[in-house]
Design a protein that fits this description.
By secondary structure, the protein is mainly alpha-helical. It has a domain at 32-88. It has helices at 2-7, 33-61, 66-84. 12% of the residues are buried.
Length: 112
């Protein structure tokens, strides 16, 4: 049971869902490309959506500055969203954390 939990796999041998961001595999074997594309998509998507909202408000209210504020808000929101999904943090490329070291090399886990 503990071995399945450590490997991040279910009983059927498939990777378990860990709730990570879209496009990022559970075992972090993507080399960072998928995470980079997700960050790029969040930021560009935020800029486009909030710029269109700003453009619409500019049209309704007769102003010209809200579209720029919308673009800046969209970029900041996209970066925040990607940060909250853990895409901008440092990842261990070996797929293991420092705390998940497993048993000792000699196999004696109760050594003192």
């Amino acid at each position: 049971m503990a071995d399945r939990k450590r490997n991040g796999r279910t009983g059927a041998g498939k990777p378990s869902a860990t709730g990570s961001a879209p496009g990022v595999s559970a075992d972090n074997s993507d080399g960072g490309y998928n995470a980079g594309m997700a960050v790029f998509s969040y930021i560009i998507g935020g800029i486009i959506v909030w710029s269109l909202i700003g453009w619409g408000l500019d049209y309704l209210w007769g102003t010209r500055w809200i579209v720029l504020a919308g673009a800046l808000l969209g970029a900041a929101g996209g970066f925040y969203l990607s940060h909250m999904h853990g895409l901008t943090s440092h990842r261990n490329t070996a797929g293991k954390s420092g705390a998940d070291s497993g048993p000792s090399a000699d196999g004696n886990t109760n050594a003192k």
